[in-house]
């Protein structure tokens, strides 16, 4: 699980071009949106595409996405339970 969390942090930084953020600055429990990492709805769409492409997870319900993208911990848990790749 720790390897997956590190992988997610690296992918988020690269995918979303967060040049001023490094992996050590993102805590597993930090909020990804709002006051935490400060991601927005466009970033959410990119994360949804990444889940599909990299892990074979298709998100169809926006409410589901809101719960999944709360933190690195919530993303890693969801991926562990639902990945097909």
TrEMBL record:
Record Pfam families: PP-binding
Carrier domain ranges (all copies): 1-83
InterPro entries according to UniProt: ACP-like_sf, PP-bd_ACP
SUPFAM superfamilies membership: ACP-like
Gene3D superfamilies xref list: ACP-like
Annotated PROSITE patterns: CARRIER
Protein name: Acyl carrier protein
């Amino acid at each position: 699980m720790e390897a997956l969390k590190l992988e997610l942090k690296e992918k988020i930084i690269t995918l979303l071009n967060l040049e001023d953020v490094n992996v050590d600055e993102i805590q597993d429990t930090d909020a990804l949106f709002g006051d935490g990492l400060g991601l927005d709805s466009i970033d959410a769409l990119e994360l949804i595409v990444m889940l599909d492409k990299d892990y074979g997870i298709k998100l169809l319900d926006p409410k589901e996405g809101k719960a999944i993208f709360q933190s690195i911990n919530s993303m890693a848990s969801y991926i562990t339970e639902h990945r097909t790749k």
